[in-house]
Amino acid sequence: MSEQDDLEYYIKFPTPYPPAPKDPSSGNTTAEPHEEFVFVYDEDKLPVVILLGWAGCQDKYLAKYSAIYEEKSCVTLRYTAPVECLFWKRYRMRDIGRRLVQVIADMNLHEHPIFFHVFSNGGAFLYQHVSFAMQQLETPLKVKGVIFDSAPGERRISSLFRAISAILGGHPFTNIPMSFVITIFLSILWLFEVIAQSLKEGCPIPTNPIALAEETHSWPQLFLYSNTDDLIPAKDVEKFASRRAARGVRVQMVRFTDSPHVKHYAAYREVYINIVCTFIHECLIPDNSSDLKEASHHREPAERPRLTKRVVLPSEASKPLM
């Protein structure tokens, strides 16, 4: 992709036809837990879910996640930043973030309720630049919430090595030395980048997703992470989420006990769908707290907790498909 090329994104609008009703004669009349969700906001303003993939993510994998929302009649937009822009041409990320926001506006989706579903540090880094671009808009997007899957985490050489190794793939005999060389090169490059940013006057270009802890936007955030993630440790996500809650953001944390990096959906399919659908449903509920206060002079309405945490046990894992 040259600097002037169009973004290679994928957008899908829901069909106007509702799904066919279940046949009572089939004997299977029990709905799945997530089938009860119908996101009602405005018939002319369907919810929009923007999925930002992890580094090296193929769209066929990201499409499995967007299908969750498409089944609920949401508009979905999928995009994964090029690997070279995430690792060594990072100066281009600001332009990508700005152009992605412009795509949303050009399609007249800026008046719709918008959610971001962000994967790993690659998706979080891109969201960071989208967030920065949104701050420059005269007419802000109507973002209702953000879902972080396996993100964000501190930049570490060990995590960088594992990420590069996963992207390269192939036989360990060639993978390990190549990953080692690329990791050293990028580490030196990032060191010079940090030094250059510290010497530059004005507003520095964001380079670390952890800096999102100081993001000015305060819409609700959901964090999906794991004890066994070898790229983004659980302690990084929990520390970040706590900092967001301390800034007044409504935060939900869901810790899976044994699922790998960006594999929580594969291991806990039904639980995962239920969690993200519940989050979006709650974010779409109008805030009537001001009306409640006017209606009652003696009792204040109960406020939602700023930070909640849930642990998903292995016994809740999805059963393998037959």
Compose a concise summary of this entry:
The chain has 322 residues and is an alpha/beta fold.
CATH architecture of the largest domain: 3-Layer(aba) Sandwich
Q: How far apart, in Å, are the first and last alpha carbons?
A: 41 Å
Using only C-alpha atoms, the radius of gyration works out to: 21 Å
CATH superfamily of the largest domain: Alpha/Beta hydrolase fold, catalytic domain
Strand adjacency order, main sheet: 1-3-2-4-5-6-7-8
Counting helices, strands and paired strands, the structural category is: alpha/beta
Q: What is the CATH level 1 assignment of the largest domain?
A: Alpha Beta
Number of strands: 8
Give the % helix. 25-40%
- Main sheet attributes: strand count, strand direction, barrel closure: 8 strands, mixed
CATH topology of the largest domain: Rossmann fold
* Contiguous uncertain segments of 5+ residues: 288-301
Question: Tell me, what's the shape?
Answer: globular
Tally of DSSP helical segments: 10
Number of self-contained structural domains: 2
SSE string: EEHEHHEHEHHEHEHHHE
Beta-strand fraction estimate: 5-15%
The averaged pLDDT comes out at 82
Q: Would you write up a description of this structure?
A:
This protein is α/β, with parallel strands linked by helices and 322 residues long. It has 2 domains: 220 residues, Rossmann fold (3-Layer(aba) Sandwich); 52 residues, no CATH class. The chain has 10 helices and 8 strands. The chain has an 8-stranded mixed β-sheet with strand order 1-3-2-4-5-6-7-8, with helices on both faces. The longest helix has 28 residues. The protein is globular.
